[in-house]
Amino acid sequence: GETSRASAILDRDLAEFPSDTLWQKVRGPQIKAAILLHGHKTLEAINELSSGAPYDLRTFDLNTLRGRAYLEAGKGQEAVAEYRKILDHQGVDPLSPDYPLAWLGAARGYSLCKNIPESRDAYEHFFGVWKDADANVPALQEAKLEYAKLSKDPPISRGCQARD
Fold first, then answer.
1. Could you tell me the CA-to-CA distances from 97 to 12, 15, 55, 60, 68 in Å, in that order?
2. Using CA atoms, how far apart are residues 130 and 123, in angstroms rounded to an integer?
């Protein structure tokens, strides 16, 4: 929550490494986007992350943060696209916690698009991956509540496409 301090450290580090591509195009914008998201400036955060797009799937960090920003901005289709990149490329980091959480992000994105069948399916994948998780993990508790609220057969919106 110390965004002023984080911004000052980020500015110092960006100035110290002006020709470091990963700092200038990936890590710096990623940190700045996290600061912006903390302040609920989702569209600014999404814009900040655009410079890192050529480096997507170097790790799952950019896609995860971009997906989170899209969810907070109410842009379900865009969020699903970011989380699908992770789900379609598990080999980038097979042990990353971002992989199972991408199922949760996709479920939430599909839900925003009113694509309830796909949302339910993604939640079920998430629950399957986390079947042995501690029941007190907040993400799991939130997911169970969200899943319980999904209605069974509403129409599918054209805003989000079904998974392949």
1. 30, 32, 19, 10, 15
2. 10
Tokens of 122: 């993604």
Contact between 42 and 78 under an 8 Å Cβ cutoff? The reply is no
CB-CB contact of 51 with 29 (8 Å): yes
Exposure b/e, 102-131, CB count within 10 A at least 16 = b: bbbbbbbbbbbbbbbebbbbbbebbbeebe
Instruction: Give 162's pLDDT tier (boundaries 50, 70, 90).
Output: very low
Reported pTM = 0.88
Chain segment 68-124, per-residue pLDDT in tens: 999 999 999 999 999 999 999 999 999 999 999 999 999 999 999 999 999 999 999
